[in-house]
TrEMBL record:
InterPro entries in UniProt: FAD/NAD-bd_sf, FAD/NAD-binding_dom, NDH-2, NDH2-like_C
SUPFAM superfamilies hit by this protein: FAD/NAD(P)-binding domain
Keyword field: FAD, Flavoprotein, Membrane, NAD, Oxidoreductase, Transit peptide, Transmembrane, Transmembrane helix
The protein's Enzyme Commission number: 1.6.5.9
Record-linked Pfam families: NDH2_C, Pyr_redox_2
This protein's name: NADH:ubiquinone reductase (non-electrogenic)
Lineage per the UniProt record: Bacteria, Pseudomonadati, Pseudomonadota, Alphaproteobacteria, Hyphomicrobiales
Organism: Microvirga brassicacearum
The reaction(s) this protein catalyses: a quinone + NADH + H(+) = a quinol + NAD(+)
Domain FAD/NAD(P)-binding positions: 11-327
TM region positions: 375-392
Length: 432
């Protein structure tokens, strides 16, 4: 009797354990395909709450979860910590830290980073908010600005130290501006003797005629009013021309500011270069409706690095909910295909609403034409974010922190630790 040789197990390599890659891996967990998930970090980051780390509401560990822990029960998934440097689609290999890892199917979900519109030198002075390191750096800069102002005798320099410029009036800029204003006016207000933190100036700069361009106008108007109530100065139609240590050059003058936060542009990770194919101006790879890459076999691109039109003919937005739905879809589609079952139809995005927070008890939500604002929107925003956080421990800690911050207006994560030394060195270097 001849022994039946089992077919070789297909090997799926997923690069990136963000919203898209992790959702895809979870769909494949427990199946009989071999999955390798590669990320350059050992944790999955919940980016929508980064601004709360940057403004000392939450600690970094509360919005991140080790990838191994999330996937530990799935014996068929191997997690590798490494930086992918390229892809050889002919040999079907991924290059990771100088090694080659073979694949049968490749899923690329490496997300996006900041774009400084051709001015990479601005990054030094105006960090963006994409990683935990960014959030810690911004938190240190904001807290250190008040510390320095407390010691500063010159009133002009004190005013500069207490001016925080947020560049970009999208959801990230709006959230940051509101949260920094609250930090100054509520959490720090009683703690200094020579300055009044409530007098800090938070200036939100936007090149377009209004903030929150992706939201309907009435919600943007509401957000603008709510920000002004918090003391934020909003300057629309004001493109930034230059950024330096001293402040921001605008078309109509110079804004002295010690802290500059970049929330204006994004650029996809270099997947287009790895694959040797064209991208759009933001570096995104156009994909077929099943998320495969035109002209390449066994390669899929999803999440922020992909470009796919939605039902309204416009590209799907760079949102966690798009990335998560694409990851789930692709995981199911790959399983069906590898098992010889009928693959699902094209990917269809179901919007669960567009949300932005404008302070500690106010938010705006657009559910495809139904608009919600104020406190009810904020409560719903909180519930959605708790639900989406990975890990029970994180959920519990975040709810406790929010309750504490809400009831006492205090911030639990104000310790400036190891970054102070780095900050001092940077300060010394920049002043020569
Ligand atoms: C401050 C901020 C607030 C946001 N708020 C919201 C919100 O309220 N609602 C919402 O829906 N969306 C929000 N977003 C957008 C959302 O976070 C993104 O759309 C989502 O993270 C995209 O998921 P992704 O899987 O494509 O990429 P990511 O989540 O960015 O994951 C990419 C992963 O790839 C890894 N990686 C990158 N390059 C490599 C490499 N070369 N080798 C190995 N690994 C690599 C990274 O380490 C990362 O883990 C926000 C984003 C930010 C930055």
């Amino acid at each position: 009797m001849t022994q039946r040789i089992p077919p070789p197990t297909p090997h799926i390599v997923i690069v990136g354990a963000g919203f898209a890659g992790l959702a895809c891996a979870q769909q494949l967990g427990g199946s009989d395909v071999a999955v390798t998930l590669i990320d350059r970090r050992n944790y999955h980051l919940f980016a929508p709450l980064l601004y709360q780390v940057a403004t000392a509401v939450l600690s970094p560990g509360e919005i991140a979860e080790p990838i191994r822990r999330v996937l530990s029960r799935h014996q068929n998934i191997t997690v590798l910590l490494g930086e992918v440097e390229g892809v050889d689609t002919n040999a079907r290999q991924v290059r990771v830290d100088g090694r080659a890892i073979p694949y049968d199917e490749l899923v690329l979900a490496t997300g996006a980073t900041h774009s400084y519109f051709g001015h990479p030198e601005w990054e030094r002075f105006a960090p963006g908010l994409k990683t935990l390191e960014d959030a810690r750096r911004i938190r240190t800069q904001v807290l250190m600005a008040f510390e320095r102002a407390e010691m500063e005798a010159d009133p002009t320099e004190r005013e500069r130290l207490m001016t925080i410029a947020v560049i970009g009036g999208g959801p990230t800029g709006v959230e940051m501006a509101g949260a920094v204003a609250e930090l100054a006016r509520l959490a720090l207000v009683k703690d200094f003797r020579h300055i009044n933190p409530a007098e800090a100036r938070v200036v939100l700069l936007e090149a377009a005629p209004r903030i929150l361009l992706a939201f309907p106008e009435d919600l943007a108007v509401y957000a603008e009013r709510a920000l002004k109530r918090l003391g934020v100065t909003i300057r629309t139609g004001t493109p930034v021309e230059d950024i330096s240590e001293q402040g921001v050059t605008l078309k109509d003058g110079f804004l002295p500011a010690s802290v500059k936060i970049w929330g204006a542009g994004v650029e996809a990770s270099p997947v287009g270069r790895w694959l040797g194919i064209e991208t759009d101006r933001a570096g995104r790879v156009r994909v077929n409706p099943d998320l495969s890459v035109p002209g390449l076999e066994h390669v899929y691109v999803l999440g922020d690095v992909s470009l796919l039109d939605g039902p309204n003919g416009r590209p799907l937005p760079g949102l966690a909910q798009v990335a998560d739905q694409q990851g789930r879809y692709l995981g199911q589609a790959l399983l069906a295909r590898l098992k010889g079952r009928k693959a699902p139809g094209p990917f269809r995005y179901r919007s669960r609403g567009n949300l932005a927070v404008v302070g500690r008890n106010s938010a705006v939500i657009d559910f495809d034409g139904t608009h919600l604002r104020g406190f009810p929107a904020w409560v719903l925003w909180g519930i959605v974010h708790i639900y989406l956080l990975v890990g029970f421990q994180n959920r519990f800690l975040v709810v406790m922190r929010w309750l504490w911050a809400y009831l006492t207006s205090s911030r639990g994560a104000r310790i400036i630790a190891e970054e102070v030394a780095e900050e001092r060195v940077e300060q010394r270097d920049s002043t020569g």
